[in-house]
Amino acid sequence: MQKNIIYLLIILFFTLILFIMPNEINTSILKACNLFINKIFPSLFPMFIITDLLIYLELPELLTKLFGNIFSKIFHTNPYGAFIFFTSLFSGTPTNAYIIKNLVLDQKITIEEANYIFSFSFFTSPLFYLNMLNQIFNNSLITIKLFIIPYLANILVGIILRPKTFNDTVINQTKRTSTLINTLLTSIQKSMNTLLTILGTVTFFFIINTIINPSTNPLISGLLEISQGLNQLNNPLLSIEIKKLYTILFISFGGLSIILQIKSILNDFKIKPFIKARFIQAIISIILLIIFYKF
Length: 295
What we know:
- With 295 residues, the chain is mainly α.
- The protein has one domain (22-163, 179-292).
- The chain has helices at 2-20, 22-56, 59-75, 80-91, 95-105, 111-119, 126-137, 140-160, 180-212, 218-224, 226-231, 240-253, 256-265, 271-292.
């Protein structure tokens, strides 16, 4: 009962804010929609479609067969971990959450394995990330270095957090039950549903940021919602060093918005181990950043 009262007070507070700051709230919603239309949607939608088509064409399965055993020995997880990792490289999060959820439902991996694999398969959509880096720095060398760091850091996170024992279950080939056209149509529908969820969470955290961060500090914005934080780094008043550090922190943590998106997809997703992995990734990424810029 006490918890319900606290929640009620919070809801009433935010309802009051809607009446006190209507112009600011409306502006934040429009900014969220503009960011989604101009940057998030063009970057994520093609990757969602490509991911489903590659899965239909069994390319990820081929990669799993080729590298599954080696992957299992390195990360101490069953060969389907390679399937998830490779598709996550080009699809990013939260697309890989759908892949993991399907594998859990098909009983090909356990929820414990799913949570562990998530700890080192956390990637921002490479197309979106690359576009943002080019806009922020406009420097090919800086872009390449900052683009590589999250991939190296994730691999090290997987090795550091790997379990002592692992499941080396043999991969069973799943028979194709749909046509390419049906797969494409299903992919479009699923992608739009996912993108609508992303739009909703991005808009929600834009509103939260407007309320608690009126000075638009990019650090606070990035910890709440990654695309907003990265977008605010397009500020000529910020030094290159600060932009690099903030970029690494945003990419490592992902923001509360992406965590909410993952949780909405995978109900048994464990947040605490995920946060622990993100802190480890942030530390590793900062070390790599220092090393990269010494050479």
